[in-house]
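User: Run a structure prediction on this.
Assistant: Running it now.
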Amino acid sequence: MKVSDIVDCLEEAFPLSFQESYDNSGLQIGDRSAEVTGILIAVDVDEAVLTEAIETGCNMVVTHHPLLFNAVKRLGNSSYIERSIRLAARHDLHVYAAHTNADNALPGINSILAEHLGLENCLPLIPLKNKLRKLVTFVPANHIRSVQNAIWQAGAGEIGAYDCCSYQVEGLGSFRPGQETHPHTGEEGKLCVVPETCISTIFPAHKESQIVEVLCKAHPYEEPAFDTVSLDNSWDTQGGGLIGLLPRPIPYIEFLHQIKRLLSADRLCYSRPKFPDQLIQRVAICGGSGAFMYKSAMQKKADIFLTGEAKYNDFYDAVDGPMLVTAGHYETEQYATELFQRTLLQKFPNFAIRISVRISNPVNYL
């Protein structure tokens, strides 16, 4: 098993193109071609987590929060980041982070939080935009199905819960084979006009290279004609935050106690409910620093919005909207370890993949 195998698995589930512009997800320290002896998964990476990896025979560490987030200008002993980089380098450890790309994926950080909270029928609070493309190609009639099957299997043609989606228009294609060509139809130097079917379908932008590759392999022409077009469409099944339903309405105070118990939170902060006996069913969530999604939760008529942290005035702003609840940044993202382990075990069921026993939450409560 190589580092590249682990990286490819994680980036298939959490594409790097999903990360925010300020982020630094991906392989941060290490060599893609190196062999992996074991994987340790944690929310954060520091010296204690790296030491645990060394002691347990794991030479790769996968975390949610990136070690290398801001620029590092020197490698000394003045910060845990510098010391961690040096420790990883000394022991030839490979360090990978899936941060906002995992936040914006479904399944992802928020969907596993929703799963623990018992939410159903979940959709993103803020769907991704500019992450979809259209493929248009031209195929002779007797190869339509083989070409469609190839690009569908590569990930094209999915719209919501539907797959194998495409549109076809029949027409005539023209071309003149040049010297030293090997045309599927026609002769060198002679204009050829043949019946062709125009096929158009949708696909995720991060899968473009593999879809174009399988298209060219499945297409009978030596030089297939195709276009890829960027779309402004929202991707309704991928994006930041989530909104879903509890199986039944419950009193707000009962749901707050559930949150505190399920997240092992030392405390919750919450805005004043609209009514003393307010019921909660429509729940919006965003693990970590998600207060900026509050307006989206309000627009989607959530009863309550749960996130990791918020500012003082955010609670004032919540007086006329959904209840605002903060449970802690670490607490709302702690299930990242379970998500990453589940993702890797689905692909590598017999490989040594451990969850760190270290609680890396830097926030303490009195």
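The longest strand covers residues 192-204.
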